[in-house]
Design a protein that fits this description.
Distance between the termini of chain A: 43 Å
Largest interface: A-B, 42 and 54 residues
Mean pLDDT of chain B: 95
Strand content of chain B: 15-25%
Shape of chain B: globular
Low-confidence stretches of chain A: none
Structural class of chain A: mainly alpha
Distance between the termini of chain B: 62 Å
Oligomer: heterodimer
Radius of gyration of chain B: 22 Å
Number of strands of chain A: 0
Helix content of chain A: over 70%
Mean pLDDT of chain A: 89
Chain lengths: 92, 496
Amino acid sequence: MRKPADPVRRGLDVFVDAAPQPQRSGMRLLIALERRPRGRRLLARTHAIDQLANGLVAMGHYEDPVNAVPLGWDADAIAARGRALRREESRL
Amino acid sequence: MNGRRREPRVIDADVCVIGAGAGGAVAAAELAEGGMRVVVLEQGPRHDADRFSARPLEMLARLYRDGGQTTTLGTPPILLPLGRGLGGTTLVNSGTCFRTPPHVLARWRDEFGLGALADEAALDPCFARVEEALSIAEVTPELAGKNAAVARRGAEALGWSHGFLRRNARGCVGSGVCAFGCPTSAKQHVGITYVPRAEAAGAQVIAGADVRHVLVERGQARGVEARLREGGRLEVRAPTVIVACGTIHTPLLLARSGLGRDSGQLGHNLALHPATGAFALMDELVDMAKGVPQSFYIDEFASEGIMFEGVAGPPSYAAMALPLSGRRHAAAMASYRNLAMFGLMVSDRSRGSVRGLAGRPVIRYELQEEDVARFRSGLARMAELFRAAGAREVYLPLPNGVAPERARARDLKLMAFHPLGTARADARPQHGVVDSDLQLHGVRGAYVADGSVVPSSLGVNPQLTIMALATRLAFGLLGRDVPQPAKPGRARARAV
């Protein structure tokens, strides 16, 4: 049985799945390389690709509340406040 | 089953509007309130603000076409995020509102023969009407947050012209996620303003309707054919059709319908306002995502085609945009709360094109040398701005060791948010796709009302221009003058 994906991967997977081809396959490849030491060394040879791969994985990492909340960003609290204010003022 | 295609559902209307973004929603509401029977067909979904999670990755996938990953082909490739659903890109933009600068209107008159369209006095009530409808007002310094305060301090130290931006927001609490679905519905995007007005006035708004063709007979619009997401086909019979699918998709629909091609301009003249962002590490706590991300501008270099505007976001957004990798990236992100960010936008002279391939847009755009020079100059000034504000370190979006003055097109890391011009207006049928009334040259009753008709770069955010042009079009179709606003018009910010 496959283990359920961790929240970081889930967020990134949703984002990657929304991309059109061939970007989707390209991003999956970059993410796979970025997560392996040998892959990272390979990516480091090209600045733009290296930053893209690093940025993609980092985006998933910092979407996770475990990493975002210590940096002062609590998405759930922001969303909950928004919902409460909309209800209070009967906004759409 | 006998193998025959099911007959389409048919709706009769006075006007069929395709697309519920900045142009389509405004035109639909004004026409419906003016007494016309209006049908609005929107390809994307109707979004529920209760599901706005303030998580960028999740919201990019949900609110943007292709998850916000539409990209141009060329050097450099440019990310071109486009909104999807009722509200269009107004759902996910930063909310900044500028009127069309007077020198741009002058260019439309002189270069494109658009005297009627670019009549400043005639457009004034259109702008004022939209500004009133969307509660457009200047951001306060408190709401702008500390990220804007950093840029303001730098601009003041250098004596550069600056100001707080005007936005379509009401009751904003600075959630910091304008681009990822405003959780308070403070941003007055057209999906929660003009679309409900259109529906209240009797318009039928159908989400999930993918229009395949605009129907024309003997030079007169007759309606549209669409596929519905839930299955089946829809035909709207209407003598007036307004195409408002946005700058990237409008030329694809027109081309598919065999319309707008006579001038050879359809799909060409694509301007983007390419943009980039830089970071600075400050001693002070910035918390860039607390406050309005785009709240402040610096227009000191507007005459050179360079505009600085605020940009900021939650950690995951910053992590993607931060121009570093490896340990330096991790170290900078560990100091996220001390990071400031600001954006740079170029009023481009480069022009690209869009065409359809297997139903998808192929967007080509090569950044020309004169625009690369604007980025060189802009990035050098961005570093100057942050240093004047007291930055400990500045992170420019360039490869290691490349100074701004030596940057080449391929070194730049660009995004763009303002595609314009692919069905441009020009009074001369051989030079443009639509005329001064935004009607397709040679086709009665078929109009275009989105960024594609804008014939040149604006140098400023285009949503207010698009909405004002749609207002003008709607009142033109109603055969009425645009009512004068209750409140007097406002002063215009200096702009490119």
